[in-house]
Every structure is written in C-alpha cells, then in structure tokens.
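Below is the data:
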Amino acid sequence: MRLAIDDRFRPRSDRRFLARVVEAALEHGGRRDLEVSLLLTDDRGIAALHGEFLGDPTPTDVMSFPAEGAADLVVNVQRAREEARRRGTTIRSELALYVVHGLLHVCGHDDHATRARARMRVAEREVLARLGLRAAPVDAS
C-alpha cells in the first residue's frame, strides 16, 4: 500500500493513524495493492469538488474515486469534528469511519440497496473494531 496525504485542515490529522485506517480498510476489502491519495478538507473544499464531479454543490462527508490500481478519497474533517461532537464520539472514530466508508466503496461495497447497505455497515463496524474504534454509521441520525 502506498498512501499520499494532502491535509488542508487545521489542526492536522495524525498521519500514522490514517495509514493504519487505510491499511485495515484495504485489507478487509481485499485490495492491499491499491495506491491511495487522501485529501483532508472542510465543508467549503468538499462542496466545491462535490459540485464539480457529482453535480451537487453541497458539503458531504466523504467522496471516493476509484482508478486503475488506485483510489482517491476526499474526507471532510470539519464534518467529522461536528458529527463526533453531536454523536458523543471522537473525531478519530468519525474520521476513520469516513475513510473506511470511502475505501469500502472503492473495494466494491455499495450502500444504495437495503441489503447492500447492511453488508457495508457490517464491514465498517468490523474494520473499526479491528482498529479499536466505534462510530455510528455514516447515514445514522
């Protein structure tokens, strides 16, 4: 696994922690060979990309873009901080959840149909548990 991190959020995120999260997600997804590019940003940054690439100029939590042998992830650290506070969890857990969620998409998981979403939520919990973390699913209220 090769990992490139572009951290545009303050304070900076722990790179070693992020590398462990990426490695655990890729191992679970059976794609340890992927090169991963991770952009950490805020509502404004992700909204611009969300609008440009998906036609929806609103902020979201994570975006993933698969490529041949690689994955590009954009993670909204501002959203992770706000959701962690709202849900009573840690920013590390929430940030890890977003990274895991995005990478599971790249590894072939889907969360559009009910059964597929349930399988993806199980996979998210398994990866987070392996890391000693716990977080609510990305679509929980």
User: Anything to note?
Assistant: The first helix runs from residue 15 to 28.
